[in-house]
Design a protein that fits this description.
Elements: E1 4-5, E2 19-22, E3 27-30, H1 31-34, E4 39-44, H2 50-66, E5 71-77, H3 89-99, E6 105-107, H4 112-117, E7 121-122, E8 124-129, E9 134-138, H5 154-164, E10 177-180
């Protein structure tokens, strides 16, 4: 299991726009249509990564906890599905249903969206405020497969709470760590 950290896109960056297929219902989803009125969490994930599998339940709970507070979550997989068939759109749909995703699970076939976000690993998290400006990029929490720390979503939840309450988000942010995005 290779450990790849986030690239830490500069804070204040505008959310790169996209229009991608939602593997759950085969509709096209754009950032403008799917973003939250208070803020948006963009998550680069995939099906096969043990780091993502470790946090899937928390991602679902986090989305449920914040959807009524004006925060929307959007998951994107940018992995090369040809060489990693477990990350193909049909398998993404199966995984989303099995996990109970209440957020879109988008497929970035060209990998252009991952490049626009400077995404490096799965999971990789970005929080944008109501003006679509980046206020957080980094880890969900300190938990990693096998380290014994419980999955709480603490770091990401703190950033989201600050966005909701229109408070500044601390610039002291730790990169996420996971599997590298499987580039073509």
């Amino acid at each position: 299991m290779a450990l790849t950290p986030s690239n830490m896109l500069p804070l204040g960056t505008s959310a790169p726009k996209f229009n991608l297929i939602n593997t759950i219902d085969d509709t096209m989803v754009s950032l403008d249509e799917a973003k939250g009125i208070k803020g948006t969490v963009i998550m680069f994930i995939c099906n096969h990564c043990p780091f993502v599998k470790h946090v899937n339940a928390e991602l679902v709970q986090l989305a449920k906890d914040y959807v009524t507070k004006g925060i929307k979550c959007i998951a994107i997989s940018s992995n090369d599905a040809e060489n990693y068939p477990e990350d193909a759109p049909d398998k993404m749909k199966e995984n989303a249903i099995q996990q109970g995703f209440i957020f879109p699970y988008l497929y970035d076939k060209t990998q252009e969206v991952a490049k626009a976000y400077d995404a490096a690993c799965t999971p990789d998290f970005y929080v944008f405020d109501k003006n679509s400006k980046l206020v957080y990029r980094g880890q969900l929490d300190h938990s990693r497969p096998g380290n014994g720390s419980p999955v709480t979503g603490r770091d990401l939840r703190q950033a989201i709470d600050n966005v909701i309450n229109e408070q500044p988000v601390s610039e002291e942010q730790k990169p996420s760590i996971g599997c590298n995005i499987k580039w073509k």
